[in-house]
Amino acid sequence: MVSLQYEDTEILDLDPEFFISLLDHVCNNEGKSLNEIAIVFCSDEFLLDINNRFLNHDYYTDIITFDYVEDEKISGDLMISIDRVKDNALTEGVGFKEELNRVVIHGVLHLLGFGDKSSDEALLMREKEAYYLGFT
C-alpha cells in the first residue's frame, strides 16, 4: 500500500495508482515486496525541521527516508520537499514530474538497501534511478 500525504504544502494533482505501480515495479525487480510506504509531500521548512530534529542536520534536502523494512517487505516514509524538487527540476533542466519521480525512486532505493554516500554508491544509485525512470 502506498499513501500520499501533504504537510505544509499545496496539494498536487498526482495519481496514487501511478506511485503504487512504480514502487511495486521497483521493489519486485529488486527481489523484494512492497508493503507500506507513505509519501509525504511537504515544504522546505517542514523538511528542514524534520532534518534538524531527527538527523541533527541543519540544511535543506529534497528527501528524507525513514526505513521500517522488515525482512523482504519494503516499508517506510518518504518525506519529500516539493520546494527542493521544483528547484532541482529547474537546475537539472527536467520537468517537475520527472524530478519528482526520480526522488520517489531514490527514496525507495534507499529502503531497498542502496546507499549514496561514496562515489561508487552514488553512481549505482543514479544508474538505478535512470533505469527505473525509463518505466515512468
Radius of gyration: 14 Å
Strand content: 15-25%
Specify the overall morphology.
Answer: globular
Written as H for each helix and E for each strand, in order along the chain, the element string is EHEHEEHHH
Please work out how many helical segments DSSP would assign: 5
Q: How helical, in percent, are the residues?
A: 40-55%
Strand order of the largest sheet: 1-2-4-3
Report the end-to-end length measured between terminal Cα atoms: 19 Å
Low-confidence stretches: none
Structural class: alpha/beta
Q: What do the pLDDT scores average to?
A: 95
How many strand elements? Answer: 4
- What is the makeup of the main sheet? 4 strands, mixed
